[in-house]
Amino acid sequence: MRRELAAPTPTSSRLALLDGLCQSWEVSEMHPFRWVPADGGRHATADVRLAGAYATGETIVALCARKVTVAKSTEVAWLWPTCAECNSEAHALAESGAER
C-alpha cells in the first residue's frame, strides 16, 4: 500500500524557515552574542556553549546582566518582546566589533 505524504501546511513551512534561520543565527560568527528566548522575552547572551542551541531550562546570563532560564525555541517564542537592555548592549557590541 502506497502512502501519500501530506503537503506541508503554511505553519510547517514557516516553522521550517524559522528553524533554518535560528540555526544560521546560532552558528554565526558575526557577533559575540546569541539571541535566546528566555523568561518570556528575547534575551541576548555571550555565554559560551559547546555545540547547538542552549538547552531548554538552562540558566544563562543575559547581556542585561540578569540570569534567565532558556525557554523552548518555538515560532511564538521568537515573537516575544525583545529585552531593551539586551538590545542596547547587543547593538553596542555589534557596532564596536568588540568581543565580550
What does this structure look like?
The chain is of the alpha+beta class and 100 residues long. The protein is built from two helices and four strands, in the order αββββα. The strands form two sheets. Strands 1-2 form a two-stranded antiparallel sheet. A two-stranded antiparallel sheet has the order 3-4. The longest helix has 17 residues, at 10-26. The protein is globular and about 30 Å long.
Q: C-alpha Rg, in Å?
A: 16 Å
N-to-C span: 58 Å
Number of strands: 4
How do the helices and strands follow one another from N- to C-terminus? HEEEEH
The major β-sheet equals: 2 strands, antiparallel
Give me the number of helical elements.
2
Helix content: 25-40%
Global structural class: alpha+beta
Residues in β-strands, percent: 15-25%
Low-confidence stretches: 5-9, 17-28
Quick one: overall form?
A: globular
Mean pLDDT: 78
Strand order of the largest sheet: 1-2
Describe the protein's topology.
Blueprint: H1 10-26, E1 34-38, E2 41-45, E3 59-61, E4 67-69, H2 84-96
Concise account of the structure shown:
The chain has helices at 10-26, 84-96, and strands spanning 34-38, 41-45, 59-61, 67-69.
How would you describe this structure in keywords?
100 residues; alpha+beta; two-stranded antiparallel ribbon; 30% helix; globular
